[in-house]
Specification:
Elements lengths: L3 E4 L2 E4 L4 E7 L3 H4 L1 E7 L6 E6 L6 E3 L7 E6 L4 E6 L8 E8 L2 H5 L6 E2 L3 E6 L1
Parallel strand pairs: 2-11
Antiparallel strand pairs: 1-3, 3-8, 4-5, 4-9, 5-6, 7-8, 9-10, 9-11
């Protein structure tokens, strides 16, 4: 059974940094494209960033370009999201997700697996 477990969320001041991790079961990182999504209170879940199966290609939402970086370590079965220069509007529950294509993930399509989410709160 596929499991995705996020960690690393918390409370941080504006301008600060956090690194989220997503521990994946089995060989999911080497067979699926992976992505991060977020959902703020009262808003729909939105795409943040995605990475191709081989790790060569990435995609970012305009709102996080230049501040967030997605990476993965297939040997550790872990997906990462490095978040720098955080803003209050980055406050949300962050989810990792897996699907067949990072391009489809960027359009919030064809998502096969979700994690349970981790809360990120950025204070002003």
């Amino acid at each position: 059974q596929v499991q995705l477990v996020e960690s690393g969320g918390g409370l941080v001041q504006a301008g600060g940094s956090l690194r989220l991790s997503c521990a994946a079961s089995g060989r999911i990182l080497s067979t699926y494209a992976m992505g991060w999504f977020r959902q703020a209170p009262g808003k729909e879940r939105e795409f943040v960033t995605g990475i191709s199966v081989g790790g060569r290609f990435t995609s970012y939402a305009d709102s996080v370009k230049g501040r967030f970086t997605i990476s993965k370590d297939n040997f550790k079965n872990t997906l990462y999201l490095q978040m720098n220069s955080l803003k209050p509007e980055d406050t949300a529950v962050y989810y990792c997700a897996a699907g067949p294509s990072y391009r489809a993930l960027s359009m919030s399509r064809d998502i096969d697996y979700w994690g349970q989410g981790t809360q990120v709160t950025v204070s002003s």
